[in-house]
Amino acid sequence: MKRVRFAPSPTGYLHLGNARTALFNYLFSRHENATFILRIEDTDLERSKKEYEEMLMEDLKWMGIEWDEGPDVGGPHGPYRQSERLEIYMKYVDKLLKSGDAYYCYCTEEELEQEREKAIAEGRPYRYSGKCRNLTPEERAFYEGKGIKPVVRFKVPDKTVVFEDIIRGHVEIDTKEFGDFVIVRQDGMPVYNFVVVIDDALMGITHVIRGEDHLSNTPKQIVIYEALGFAIPQFAHLPIILGEDRTKLSKRHGAVSVRALKDDGFISEAVFNYLSLLGWHPKEEKEILLKEEIIKQFKIEDVNKSPAIFDRTKLRWMNGVYIREILDLDDLTKRATAFFEGFGYKADYEFYKKVMSAIRDSIETLMEIKERAKVFFVDEFPYTEEIVNEVKSDENVYKVVEIFYNKIKNLSAITKEDFKNITKEIQKEYGYKGRALFHPIRIALTGEPSGVGLDLLVEVIGIERVKFRLERFLEYFG
What we know:
Blueprint: E1 3-6, H1 16-31, E2 35-38, H2 50-63, H3 86-99, E3 102-105, H4 109-121, H5 137-145, E4 151-154, E5 160-165, E6 169-174, E7 181-184, H6 192-202, E8 207-211, H7 218-228, E9 234-238, E10 241-242, H8 258-263, H9 268-276, H10 291-297, E11 308-309, H11 312-326, H12 329-342, H13 349-359, H14 369-372, H15 374-377, H16 385-393, H17 395-408, H18 416-430, H19 435-446, H20 454-461, H21 463-477
């Protein structure tokens, strides 16, 4: 059975690049009926934090990504945190030391720096000289006696590593490019390129789907697989994600973590949909795809090796489609409630629902509720200098508001139809129409020159608040 994994480090928020990697592993697993594993790579003890691990899992779940095995759900191949697997790793370190495929290295930082400087001076790329490859027991005892703590290096065979990448095709890398590399640091902590092989092998990972920044690690990992007699998985290195300026995606491009997008009012399904299209395209010319459709069509072989461009404008557009057309009103309102409350707009659920019905066609993110919904919650808004000057210079503005107020002052309720009928009456009786009719009413009711449909506004806020706003306007300018 096919098995894939997503193995993040809990050292910060879930970056969009990592989220896309998690998503493609998830899509592969669900399309292929494979097992999807979440593994936490927390051997960087200084930077790894439990709260980041928890947020990482929350953000994956928010996106709609579930896993079959992991630190929170368990499974037959645990533990699923690297910090809990140290005994397992050291067993394989010992195996490599005994077989002669690894050795203790006592070179100091000063010695290694001298080697680097010499390589630079000679105009060649640096690789470790192999100075400690063949130390005698007496030489080892000498270094141990001096209290020098060794690292453990993997003895890299002199060969060309060849593999077929599902996305990038035929890859060949000569081991001369990297030389003997460290697999256990001086503090006794095994390093990434070693532990990832042990974990993937023991967890039965058949396909390693990850970012192309790991491509240079792959030959190092393959020689370890071979030394330990493990089956080598298939590799698929995903294209890098760039900003619109064609530079690596970073904070200068705006929110680049899943948590930030969530806080900015993006819909999880829209993020899922958009990230799935960063490097992969469905056969049909259709961009709005529900989760089930994406899973059905997704094939890792169809992923493009060219860089993917993160287009925030397009994500906003897609998010707007989900808000306007895909989520039902109840679901949308439930998601929006936290935003209403966060902006200080206090009301009951039914009122929130009416407001969302009125504004959903005019917003692209839930963060835009702050401005778009203000007219439904704030009755005592300020009149701008522009409005004051307009009312003072055009007596018809005040007159229209006064006429409208007299038409509604005795009503006990008002609907969209009532509003339309009343404005038609005013048009017939007084000749005001178009902007000359609706603009004065709008600035009296909202203090804004444009915005939500007035018929929707009056129905949602109700007759008493409509009267209050009109009376306030008439009193202020009367």
